[in-house]
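Subject: Sanity check before I submit

Could someone independently write out the structure tokens for this chain? I want to compare against mine line by line before I put it in a report. The sequence has 36 residues.
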Amino acid sequence: MIGHFETPTVPVVAESAIDEVNTSIISINEAIKSKS
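---
Independent answer below. Compare away.
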């Protein structure tokens, strides 16, 4: 049961991590745009 439950969580964790990175990149890009 635990093994069956863990398998789908890996892509979800990766997806949320990617979302966080994308949000950070967007924030950095906005900051660069506003400076120049």
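---
OP: Matches mine. For the report I'm noting this point. The CA atoms of residues 22 and 28 lie 10 Å apart.
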